[in-house]
């Protein structure tokens, strides 16, 4: 897959100016853009470099018709208008890759293999962290993202990932926001409310 060079972005463009998108133009998102998103998102740091995030890009009408009924009713039109909907899942079998991605940590694969509960927490926490990087990567290549937690995650797993180690936790609509596709900014907490200096 060719990876296009991302446009020049600034902190303003991916944090202060970017908005969550709820309605999209029909402009297609290309395979190269999807590759560019992952090429940036994969550098999000994770514990033990474990990288548990797995992404399924849903873009054909057939695949979308399988996904849309599994979203909460208020979210269906939003995803229907998006050229691509990414299903973000945590791979609870991420430990299989540890000898390759974290070769300095001896025995990590075996320790996680023996601890399913700890492995699942690690997978979900770190996949969520990667989801933040994924949203910023969408913005960094000049597109808009609409993350949505209003989903039937178990039903998505049954439909798309039966009998697998993947656990869906979020979908992200991807495309270009329509003119009326974003809401006004709600207040963000100030430094004094969210930060403690000790
Ligand atoms: C994890 C997560 C789950 C969300 N779930 C939904 C959702 O189910 N439906 C929806 O319309 N918006 C959803 N949103 C969008 C948020 O409401 C939105 O990102 C937030 O209000 C900030 O909006 P802004 O980027 O325009 O400032 C979700 C966002 C995140 C990050």
Give the tags.
binds flavin mononucleotide; four-stranded antiparallel sheet; alpha+beta; 9 helices; NADH Oxidase; 198 residues
Shape: globular
In the CATH hierarchy, the third-tier topology is known as NADH Oxidase
The end-to-end distance, rounded to whole angstroms, is 48 Å
- Major sheet size, sense and barrel closure: 4 strands, antiparallel
The CATH top-level class label: Alpha Beta
**Beta fraction of the residues?**
5-15%
Bound small molecules, by name, code or SMILES, are:
flavin mononucleotide
Task: Give the neighbour order of strands across the main sheet.
Answer: 1-2-4-3
Question: What is the total tally of β strands?
Answer: 4
Spatial extent as radius of gyration: 18 Å
Low-confidence stretches: none
Structural class assignment: alpha+beta
Textual characterization of the structure:
With 198 residues, the chain is an alpha+beta fold. The protein has one domain (20-177): NADH Oxidase. It is 40% helix and 15% strand. It has nine helices and four strands; from the N terminus they run ααβααβαααβαβα. The chain has helices at 11-16, 31-41, 61-67, 73-81, 98-101, 108-113, 116-140, 153-160, 191-194; strands spanning 53-58, 84-91, 144-148, 166-175. Strands 1-2-4-3 form a four-stranded antiparallel beta sheet. Helix 2 crosses helix 7. It is globular and about 50 Å long. Flavin mononucleotide is lined by residues 19-20, 22, 75, 147-150, 170, 182-183, 185-186. Flavin mononucleotide binds at residues 19-20, 22, 75, 147-150, 170, 182-183, 185-186.
